[in-house]
Design a protein that fits this description.
By secondary structure, this protein is of the alpha/beta class. It is 35% helix and 14% strand. The chain has 14 helices and 15 strands. Strands 10, 11, 12, 13, 14 and 15 form a six-stranded mixed sheet that branches. Keywords: Signal, Transport. Belongs to the bacterial solute-binding protein 8 family.
Length: 348
């Protein structure tokens, strides 16, 4: 999944098409307009119901004077979340990896069309087409789960409030994404119900598949010959699977993440260390990559792969849906994902 690799090297994202593929490898209230308290990155200042709202990010401050009406979303998940919170963006980042021919992620497009709303403009992001963003005359840019660079933030911030990530690029939790966006849109009370609805969908799927409970898994990616990376807690794909009742294999749970990522670089020569994995997950950009990876003897000797307890992901749209793992994408993904998981689990 070209998109899912982006989570593998989140903090090292370079805004080029190649880097996109590799990378897939507090609220405080104020009752005084003159309040000067400085919140922590990602925190907000408002009374929870009115504007202005001030949101701090790792790149700088966004002060939103009134309820936004023309919102542009960049990075992952923001378009879904804004839509679920009642705002149809006027512009969204084009998904050239897991999107349709027009650059829309299918669950997002379906949801916009169900609302009988106008589809937003799609914006080239690698590199970011700043002129296209400005041409839309936005009153807010949302990018809390992105790799936006400081110079881009500074340039856009001269024209429009920009809400970037609170900590490291590409490492904002879904909970924080929803909370930040809800605050920016002036609907903070809608954040928790939206997260609850997502959790209810996952809980219902887990209850419908008790055979998955306790199955020990690993989610890996082998982007180059001899390489093997393992996704760890914090990665949305791992969090979704544990939400469905599976458990990270002890050999994986004990690994230390590469700094700034939710993954550990293991190396295929160490594949024998994950022999306790009962169900192996991975993803590929295409059939050729899948064939090349599976043909490597050290990969083929992983016990879970050898006995067919194996869930390879080739569907890019599904791969992106479980990677962003938003309240909008998760229900859309589960119908297709669960049959793949249960088929692999049948061979455990």
């Amino acid at each position: 999944m070209g998109a899912p690799v982006r989570h593998l090297r989140r903090t090292a994202v370079v805004v080029t098409a190649t880097a996109l593929t590799l990378a897939l490898a507090a609220c405080s209230g104020s009752t005084d307009d003159d309040a000067t308290a400085t919140p922590e990155p990602g925190s907000t200042e408002s009374d929870g119901t009115t504007f202005p709202v001030t949101i701090e990010s790792a790149l700088g401050t966004a002060t939103i004077e009134e309820k936004p009406e023309r919102v542009v979303t960049l990075g992952w998940g923001a378009a879904d979340i804004a839509l679920d919170l009642g705002t149809v963006p006027v512009g969204v980042e084009a998904d050239t990896w897991g999107g349709d021919a027009d650059g829309y992620q299918p669950w997002f497009r379906e949801a916009v069309e169900e609302r009988d709303a106008e589809l937003p403009e799609t914006i080239a992001a690698y590199p970011l087409d700043i002129d296209a963003v400005v041409a839309l005359e936005p009153d807010l840019v949302l990018a809390p789960q992105s790799g936006m660079e400081q110079d881009v933030f500074d340039q856009l911030s001269e024209l429009v409030p920009v809400v970037a990530y609170p900590g490291e690029p590409w490492q904002t939790t879904l909970e924080d994404q929803v909370t930040i966006i809800a605050q920016a849109l002036g609907v903070p009370e809608q954040a928790q119900p939206l997260l609850d609805a997502r959790q209810e969908a996952i809980d219902a799927a887990a209850a419908a598949h008790p055979e998955l409970a306790g199955v020990q898994f690993a989610y890996v990616y082998a982007s180059e010959p001899g390489s093997l990376s393992v996704y760890l807690p914090g990665d949305p794909r791992v969090e979704l699977l544990t939400g469905l009742g599976l458990e990270l294999a002890p050999s994986v749970a004990d690994l230390e993440a590469t700094p700034g990522t939710f993954a550990a670089e293991l190396g295929l020569e160490n594949a024998d260390t994950i022999s306790d994995v009962e169900l192996l997950f991975t993803w590929f950009n295409d059939d050729a990559e899948k064939a090349a990876t599976e043909a490597q003897p050290l990969f083929a000797q992983i016990p879970a792969f050898a006995k067919g307890a194996y869930v390879p992901m080739l569907d890019r749209q599904l791969g992106m849906a479980v990677s962003v793992a938003t309240p909008l994408s998760v229900p859309w993904a589960l119908d297709a994902y669960l049959p793949l998981i249960t088929a692999g689990a049948a061979n455990v």
